[in-house]
Specification:
- Helices cover about 40% and strands about 15% of the residues.
- The strands form three sheets. A six-stranded parallel beta sheet has the order 9-8-10-11-7-12.
- Helix 3 packs parallel to helix 5, helix 4 crosses helix 5 and helix 10 packs across helix 11.
- The longest helix is centred in the first third of the chain and has 19 residues.
Length: about 350
């Protein structure tokens, strides 16, 4: 539910406007108890919205006065509506949620607060924080096979795991299968101590982390024990047919073309696949083609396959991560920008 708007104040501000006119509208919220979470500690969320959108926000009781250019006011209203709806659903609001709501509002206009691309799992509701993340979730929901490519920190793996958890919870599939190439950055499993499970677990840890973040720990443990959740290195996929499953291949830039073909042809009845990776970060031997890049080029235009390419603008980790990735891009290209959506 969106907050009410004091229409008489808004209507008065609209008369005789030019693009630089400062509008004033007042948002009225039904539940005053939720506003502490929406506004943030010491109103830090409001300050972030003001800084990013170029508006002035003045809270008073259960109302917020918004002053600024018309489009900026509309975006601020959308952001506050989105955060308020999140608080109504019982979710915490972090700085990243505010930044995500701002990105979505700027991309989608006043409809951002009404977006239905949220991924609902047993433990949390995951809301896309960028337009590309929204496109990614929608692609996963509407295609049997989706490629998600782009730099680290864009949510490729996390959103895929969240969608898998949602599908399992809704009974759309019977099991989740998460896979990764087990050997990266020139290391060999044989150099690591322990049995096979102890050797491969460090490589698969990011998948465990994502699972535990969107599902209760007890449910993950039960799924792993019963086989409804399986985490395995890519080599273990050969010869299998994966039916009624949500299958995710992470770090796919480290596959070879034959490995990728082997994996993609495991797709069985009532199954979905998501393949994620950053083609610019392959750890394969020099001169060896990445199976991820080869598959994207080979399968372009094939029905039932989606591809969402993330860019630096979609990085939702610490803001410094985006600047680090951009700096490395500039260094490798002599100052030219190479990543595009």
């Amino acid at each position: 539910m969106n907050p009410r708007v004091s229409l008489h104040e808004l209507a008065g501000a609209k008369a005789g406007r030019n693009p630089s006119t400062q509008d004033l509208l007042t948002l009225t919220f039904d539940d005053n108890r939720l506003l502490a979470s929406v506004f943030g500690e010491h109103d830090e969320h409001l300050a972030l919205i003001e800084n990013k959108l170029g508006v002035d926000l003045t809270p008073r009781g259960n109302r917020v006065a918004v002053r600024g250019p018309e489009e900026a006011c509309a975006s601020a209203r959308s952001v506050l509506a989105s955060l308020y709806n999140r608080a109504r659903q019982g979710h915490d609001i972090l700085r990243g949620d505010v930044e995500g709501a701002i990105r979505m509002s700027l991309a989608a206009g006043d409809k951002a607060g009404q977006d239905d691309s949220a991924v609902r799992t047993r433990r949390k509701t995951v809301i896309p924080r960028t337009p590309a993340q929204k496109d990614y979730v929608e692609a996963i929901r509407h295609h049997e096979l989706v490629f998600g490519t782009g730099p680290a920190g864009t949510g490729k793996t996390y959103l895929a795991v969240a969608c898998a958890a949602e599908a399992l919870m809704n009974g759309e599939i019977d099991r989740i299968i998460l896979s990764r190439p087990a050997v990266e950055a020139g290391e060999r499993l044989g150099f690591l101590p322990g049995d096979m499970k102890e050797k491969i677990d460090p490589y698969l840890r990011p998948l465990y982390d994502a699972l535990y973040d969107v599902m209760p720990h007890a449910l993950v443990a039960k799924g792993l024990a019963e086989g409804t959740i399986e985490i395995a290195p890519l080599a273990f996929m050969r010869g299998r047919t994966l039916a009624s499953a949500f299958v995710i291949l992470d770090e796919a830039q480290n596959t070879t073309p034959p490995q990728m073909k082997m994996f993609l042809t495991r797709l069985g009845e009532n199954s979905r696949m998501v393949v994620t990776g950053d083609p610019t970060q392959a750890d394969l031997p020099p001169g060896m083609q990445s199976g991820l890049s080869d598959a994207i080029a080979t399968l372009k235009g094939v029905a039932g396959i989606g591809h969402v390419a993330f860019s630096n603008a979609d990085i939702v980790r610490h803001a410094l991560v985006g600047r680090i990735v951009a700096a490395y891009d500039r260094k490798s290209t002599g100052g030219r920008t190479t990543r595009t959506k």
